[in-house]
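Input chain follows. Return structure tokens only.
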Amino acid sequence: MMQIVPERGPVQGLPAGYARKVLEKKFVAVKVGTLAADRADKSSPENLLNLCSHSVLQPINATLFCFATDELGPMTALDAAKSTPSDRRLSGGTRIIFLINGLGMSAWAPLVPYARDRLHLDGASLGALLLCLGIGSLLAMPVTGTLVARFGCRTVMIFSTLLVLCMMPLLATVQTHLFMAAALMLFGAGLGMLDVAMNYQAVEVEKAAGKPMMSGFHAFFSLGGILGAGAVSLLLSLGLTPLLSVLIVMAVMMVLLLWRIPTFMNQRLHQPDQPWLVIPRGRVAFLGMLCFILFLAEGAVLDWGALLLLQNPVMTTAHAGLGYALFSVAMTVGRFSGDKIIHRFGRYPVMLVGALAAASGMALAVLLPWPEASLLAFLLVGFGLSNTVPMLFNAAGNQHDMPANLAISAMTTLGYAGILSGPALIGFISQWISLSGAFLLIALLLLAVAVSARNVAR
């Protein structure tokens, strides 16, 4: 039986989320009050369950040697207690790293016109240069799952954030095409690595909490996107240089990072045989294709939404950009309320209704003749897509065909392939049929996502 040796004076208890994890993994606990460890009774996890049933564990002075039968590998509960803070701090840190990623990614958008003028780029050259950002992300994402397994989430998230921060001043100042391409590729690699690592941490935190949290995490990414682009645009409008504007946003990102580093998970998965190149298989491949469709739809609104609205002769160029603005606001609001909605109604109804709403919005944006109604259709698309992608990450983290870290890496790569190839695919289809036809085709693909909702939510 496991013996517990109390200590005189207050001692920090083990986090409740970790204790739940121990029980779920059917760990074997042994007491280490001294240098020797006595093996605990495997057949009586009830002892640990009774201990962990309190909201805060009783102060103890014991170390639990945990032997997992699956992907986590051997580690001690004391190590986990050090690397895994309380559930509240973990969830807070996860929200902040999503916010940091959104800030970094969106801060680049207002700098694009300045980079074009500084480097004297035409449209084709600018498009080729922007492609470097996506290529960097796609090259980094497939290997990030293995990096997380070997070095832990904390190390990967710190490294990738610092890489993004180091590239941001270069994006505002570089004077040659070659250096700009290299800076964009490394910038994209940092964003891609951070995306995979933070989503893996989000999946693990949600598992430990035992309640929906993924939509709320992604809401902070959306919020970061709005704040980052808005802050840089405001600073530029006040007369600050691109470099100074970026440095101010960088300072905010660095403060947030240093504030929340202690709350990043740092457990390693102890699986040195994991491959560096991840090929999705089984259910992960299916989820990856759905992620491709959803990211394709998001990219369509971003890159082609304004042009679609301008096909209406009543719509003006000055107001065409409102479509994406309404889409972004709707997505952010939908994600902030998503966890409560999922908890209330369940994953299947939310996934089904979300995909149907997004498909309907895409179709209505094409079919409705009134510009105001078309703008509201983009609002519907934003609400529909807001919680579908977070639920895909939840499904990838809980399937059994691949380790969660590799599954998230593979699915994220497929998703970003959709948002990267989307503009070109839509452009090709619009030349073959029409831009309206391309959006209607995306609406049909979103209906396929709706049909797959039960499989995602199982």
